């Protein structure tokens, strides 16, 4: 694998000689799996990807679901519950396993470390490992590299390639937008060249090479946080317009008439999206640096939960109703598509229920049983869910409800 040269992966028959293992259980890992299968590689979805193992192909778009289903049926895409078995059969391993955030808002990299240990125990010489998770600067070259080397007995840059390249933040892991742009950094020139040749087969636009892994990690992290800061400002300006009795949508339309301007609408931020700020804050504390704007951003975006409840109360009051005993239907079980770990909507429904409301949740990306298992009250049919509702809350992006 590490002896690849330009032109070695130009055709589908050449790519069919290589196997790619995708680690992870989220939208981004499924998208990557589909992109590589489309390009002609043999793909293994390994580890906790229970959706595919159970025979399902969930997605936010019909395109992804269709492509996944096609590749599963042809055998180009398979699943393997054992990470070691998948690694032993692979030339390229791409990990989307995320860092966790503990109850003190500090990063917990143990899920990544555990995965790297499993990979290392079966890592083949001359294979390529690419980390695609959002992490703090230095994690790939320290924790990931050391764990892989210790478990495998091999050396990064000498016996196997090591690179970092996340799916671009703006795509949110969606298909096929995830092929639009990526940043890539590697531990050495050979790793960079090999990773570039591999990733270039699935890219439709620019693959941005940077000088080292730490630069790539930081570029990904800061771009996500910058987007979060802009959302906080949009939420503050929306709050001002609401208090001043100004139609925010009309203001937005007027500003957007300028082709050089885009007025970001107010929006909720999920817990997983706020995780990036915790990753950077932790690194800043280690450097004795105070990121004041980041702290303020987190406070503003977290406050949107309470503000949403107030908006529901105001809407009901305008109709002559109270929150107590009102039937409220929430569209979207998670802010991010098909994310069972995203608890923002759960916190919203719990807050509404504590104040006496009867809350139902509907989300076409989850089965009726999954919604019940997540602690939501749900019906099998949309009509029964919405029937006699006093208030509808659109918590998730409107794309998955565009057919309503």
Describe the structure.
- The protein is an alpha/beta fold and 404 residues long.
- It contains 16 helices and 13 strands.
- It has helices at 12-15, 27-39, 50-53, 62-74, 83-88, 110-120, 140-152, 189-200, 213-244, 248-256, 271-286, 292-302, 304-318, 344-354, 368-373, 382-386, and strands at residues 19-23, 42-46, 77-80, 92-95, 100-101, 107-108, 128-131, 161-164, 182-186, 207-209, 327-331, 358-362, 391-394.
- The protein has an eight-stranded mixed β-sheet with strand order 3-2-1-4-7-8-9-10, with helices on both faces.
- α2 (27-39) crosses α4, α9 (213-244) packs across α12 (292-302) and α13 (304-318) packs across α14.
- 40% of the residues are buried.
- The model has no long low-confidence stretch (mean pLDDT 90).
């Amino acid at each position: 694998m590490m002896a690849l040269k330009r032109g070695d992966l130009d055709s589908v028959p050449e790519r069919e000689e290589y196997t790619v293992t995708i680690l992870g259980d989220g939208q981004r890992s499924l998208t990557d799996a589909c992109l590589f299968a489309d390009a002609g590689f043999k793909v293994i979805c390994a580890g906790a990807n229970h959706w595919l193992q159970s025979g399902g192909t969930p997605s936010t778009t019909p395109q992804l679901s269709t492509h996944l289903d096609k590749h599963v049926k042809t055998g180009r895409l398979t699943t393997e519950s054992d990470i070691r078995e998948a690694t032993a059969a692979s030339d390229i391993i791409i990990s989307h396993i995320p860092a966790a955030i503990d109850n003190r808002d500090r990063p917990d990299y143990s899920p990544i470390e555990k995965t790297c240990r499993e990979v290392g125990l079966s890592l083949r010489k001359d294979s390529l490992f690419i980390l695609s998770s959002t992490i703090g600067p230095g994690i790939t070259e320290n924790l990931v590299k050391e764990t892989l080397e210790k478990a495998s007995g091999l050396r990064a840059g000498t016996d196997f390639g090591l690179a970092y390249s996340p799916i671009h933040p703006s795509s949110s892991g969606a298909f096929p937008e995830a092929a639009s742009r990526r940043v890539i950094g590697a531990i050495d020139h050979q790793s960079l060249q090999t990773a570039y040749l591999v990733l270039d087969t699935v890219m439709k636009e620019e693959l941005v090479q940077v000088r080292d892994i730490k630069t790539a990690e930081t570029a990904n992290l800061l771009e996500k946080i910058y987007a979060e800061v802009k959302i906080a400002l949009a939420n503050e300006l929306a709050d001002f317009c609401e208090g001043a009795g100004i139609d925010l949508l009309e203001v937005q339309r007027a500003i957007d008439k300028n082709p050089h301007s885009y007025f970001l609408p107010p929006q909720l931020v999920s817990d997983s999206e706020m995780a990036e700020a915790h990753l950077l804050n932790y690194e800043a504390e280690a450097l004795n640096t105070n990121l004041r704007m980041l702290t303020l951003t987190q406070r503003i975006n977290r406050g949107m939960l309470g503000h949403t409840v107030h908006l529901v109360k105001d809407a009901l009051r305008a109709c002559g109703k109270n929150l107590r005993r009102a039937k409220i239907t929430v569209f979207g079980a998670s802010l991010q598509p098909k994310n069972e770990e995203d608890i923002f909507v759960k916190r919203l429904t719990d807050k509404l229920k504590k104040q006496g409301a009867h809350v139902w949740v509907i989300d076409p990306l989850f089965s009726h049983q999954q919604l019940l298992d997540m602690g939501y009250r749900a019906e099998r049919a949309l009509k029964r869910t919405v029937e006699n509702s006093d208030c509808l809350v659109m918590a998730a992006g409107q794309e998955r409800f565009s057919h309503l």
